[in-house]
Specification:
With about 400 residues, this protein is mainly alpha-helical. The chain has one domain: Up-down Bundle (Growth Hormone, Chain: A), CATH 1.20.1250. About 75% of the residues lie in helices and about 0% in strands. The protein has 16 helices and no strands. Helix 3 packs across helix 5, helix 5 runs antiparallel to helix 14 and helix 11 packs antiparallel against helix 16. The C terminus is likely disordered.
Length: about 400
């Protein structure tokens, strides 16, 4: 349900902000603010989630996300004047929701089923991405103007509101332990600690995500000037991604993660090549299909290995909230670096046709460095070890 709400509006929100403001910088600062506040919310809300009720954090995150779209509806075209406050609001919503979600995810999975679970999660996400953006693009195109955006923002807000109500039927788990504010810093300062390799690898993942999460859709719109084409782009690439996540989730085993992640990292970098041709819907579609096909090979081993690392010992499993926050800190740092790179090259975009593909290649090649940093950990955290039963806490 939440995936559908995000897919309906999230794909088109950067387009709405750009069409209203005609400013690439504003879109960048909105995303920079969103990522920064999301990371801070993870860290600050960690005590609440660990020591009190994680489900209330999840509900608050969903509620703030719904409120965000209601506020955008109320402000209309004036939303661009409040891009930073809006970024703060959606950043807080994402932080509260994903902190609780990731902790629950750790509690209900284990090394033996984590790759398969991630495959199904990616499959469901791709499934939402197949239909929802296509419907949004069709509505916006048919409505010819702001009315289409109002419709999809309204539907997303309503879905988030319903999700808050439904969340009260989710089972609350008992909270245990005391939150350690500086736990992550201590891990990074400890010589020989595997997180000294994992966190920089997570940063590399974030660098790519920081730009690709909003700029790819914006490029498709700039090349076509048609929201319907962007909806078609999302439909096609999500369909390919669905197949990719299903196959990789079904076939991937811990012992194969190292090879799979290397193939994925190299492939998602290689498929950037079409962007060096004149920017068009065809070149972007070739890039999008290649990315959707190979990204599961990179994301699934990365995610599963990091969460296996959290559960590798009884003590680390007890500190799952702190480790989830450490992971998010790496992603946040990487995303902010990526958006900063985007903002730095903006003044030069009109001077050369190679600035945009150069930026996409520069940030898009970071997964290769991420694999190099993770190569010694891939599969090892799951070998011969069982996670403890502390998930029930």
């Amino acid at each position: 349900m939440l995936g559908t709400a995000n897919a309906l509006s999230g794909t088109f929100l950067p387009i709405y902000l750009w069409k209203t403001s005609q400013s690439f910088a504003l879109v960048g600062w909105f995303n920079f603010t969103q990522f920064l506040v999301s990371g801070l919310t993870f860290w600050l809300a960690g005590k609440w989630v660990k020591e009190h009720n994680k489900m209330n954090s999840l509900r608050l995150g969903v509620a703030l996300s719904g409120l965000f779209y209601f506020v955008v509806l109320l402000l209309g075209e004036s939303s661009v004047d409040y891009a930073v406050p809006l970024g703060i609001m959606i950043g807080m919503g994402n932080g509260f929701f994903w902190l609780a979600f990731n902790v629950v995810y750790f509690e209900v999975t284990e090394p033996g089923n984590r790759d398969r679970f991630n495959g199904w999660a990616g499959l469901l996400g791709s499934g939402a991405g197949i239909v929802a953006p296509w419907i949004s693009g069709w509505l916006i195109t048919m409505s010819k103007g702001e009315r289409g955006y109002h419709i999809i923002f309204t539907v997303s807000a309503v879905i988030f509101s319903v999700a808050v109500v439904l969340s009260f039927w989710l089972k609350k788990r008992k909270s245990t332990g005391t939150y350690e504010w500086l736990h992550g810093i201590r891990q990074l300062r400890e010589r020989g600690n595997p997180w000294r390799y994992a966190v920089p690898a997570i940063v590399c993942q974030g660098v790519r995500e920081g730009v690709y999460m909003f700029f790819v859709g914006l490029l498709v719109f700039l090349a076509t000037k048609n929201e319907g084409k962007l909806g078609n782009f999302s439909l096609i690439t999500s369909l390919v991604g669905l197949v990719g996540f299903w196959l990789v989730g079904r076939l991937l085993k811990p012992r194969r993660r190292r090879a799979a992640m290397l193939i994925g990292a190299v492939a998602v970098t290689a498929v950037i090549a079409p962007l060096f041709w004149p920017l068009s819907y065809r070149t972007l579609l070739a890039f999008g299909i290649g990315t959707a096909l190979f990204m599961p090979l990179y994301v699934l081993p990365m995610t599963s290995t990091v969460f296996d690392l959290i559960g590798s010992t009884e003590d680390s499993a007890k500190q799952r909230e702190e480790f989830v926050i450490l992971r998010e800190a790496g992603l946040t740092a990487g995303r902010m670096v990526g958006v900063a790179a985007y903002l730095l090259v903006l003044p030069y975009m009109e001077q050369s046709d190679y600035i945009v593909p150069g930026l996409m290649l520069a940030v898009g090649a970071f997964p290769i460095l991420g694999w190099w940093l993770m190569r010694g950990l891939l599969g090892k955290a799951a070998e011969g070890r069982k996670e403890t039963s502390t998930r029930g806490g």
